[in-house]
Design brief:
disordered N terminus, alpha+beta, about 220 residues, about 15% helix, flat
Length: about 220
C-alpha cells in the first residue's frame, strides 16, 4: 500500500509503572513503536523508532459500518461508533488534543437527525508489535529528562486507512431505498469487493446525494 495512504488506526500502550495495557484511537499520527505517551492528556511525550519489531497481517482487513443519525445525541457521542473510547473522547472535548482524520467528525456543522447516515470504512494494512515485558517499560521512561510526563509506551500499532462519509438524505428521496444502496456498498467494502458494483438505479440514487461530507486519514 502507498505509504501516503497509510495511517494509524489504534495504539496499544503499556503502562510504565504497573504494566497495565490500554488501547487508544490515534490522534497524533507521528507516534511510532517505542514512543512514550502521556495517557492523562493523550499526547506523545517523546518520539522513538524501535529497531526490532514484529509485523503481522490483520485477520480482518476491511471494516465497514453504516449507522443512522439521532438528533438527541451529542456530536461527540458518535465517535464511540467508530472506536473512540470514553477517555480519548473526553480529551477531545476538553481540547487537550486536536482531532485529525475521522476524529474531525466533531467539526461537522450540519444538523444530524433520522435522515443522516454515517458510512465508516477502514482498511487494515498491518500490525506492528514491540516485544517488551510489562515492567521493563519504566526503565526506558525513567531515562528521559522529564520522566514524570510519560505514563505509557507504544507497544503495538494498527496501520490502516479510515474514511467517514456523512450523508444527508433529501426529503424527496426514499430513506429505505437509500439505506438499501448504502448497505449494499458497505457489504461490498467489508468483502473487499473493489471497485464497487452498482446497477443503474442505485447509481442514480447515489448521484442525487449531494449533501455529503467526508473525513479521512491524514
Amino acid at each position: 500500500m502507498d505509504e501516503k495512504l497509510r495511517s494509524q488506526s489504534s495504539l496499544n500502550l503499556l503502562a510504565s509503572q504497573n504494566g497495565y495495557p490500554i488501547e487508544r484511537k490515534v490522534i497524533d499520527t507521528s507516534g511510532r513503536l517505542d514512543s512514550l505517551y502521556d495517557a492523562s492528556t493523550d499526547n506523545l511525550v517523546d518520539r522513538h523508532s524501535a529497531r526490532s519489531i514484529e509485523i503481522k497481517t490483520p485477520l480482518q482487513r476491511s471494516v465497514c459500518r453504516l449507522f443512522s443519525g439521532d438528533q438527541s445525541r451529542e456530536l461527540n457521542s458518535f465517535l464511540r461508533d467508530i472506536d473512540f473510547d470514553d477517555a480519548i473522547r473526553q480529551s477531545i472535548c476538553l481540547q487537550m488534543v486536536t482531532p485529525s482524520g475521522v476524529g474531525r467528525l466533531i467539526e461537522y456543522n450540519r444538523p444530524i437527525n433520522e435522515k443522516t447516515r454515517f458510512l465508516y470504512y477502514s482498511y487494515r494494512d498491518r500490525k506492528e508489535k514491540l516485544n517488551i515485558k510489562a515492567l521493563k517499560a519504566d526503565k526506558i521512561v525513567g531515562a528521559l529528562r522529564d520522566p514524570t510526563k510519560a505514563s505509557h509506551m507504544i507497544t503495538k500499532i494498527l496501520w490502516s486507512i479510515e474514511i467517514l462519509c456523512i450523508i444527508q438524505i433529501p426529503n424527496n428521496q426514499s430513506v429505505n431505498a437509500i439505506d438499501h444502496v448504502l448497505l449494499n456498498i458497505c457489504n461490498q467494502l467489508k468483502n473487499n469487493q473493489i471497485p464497487i458494483q452498482l446497477n443503474d438505479t442505485d447509481r442514480r440514487l447515489i448521484n442525487q446525494l449531494t449533501d455529503t461530507t467526508v473525513f479521512g486519514s491524514e
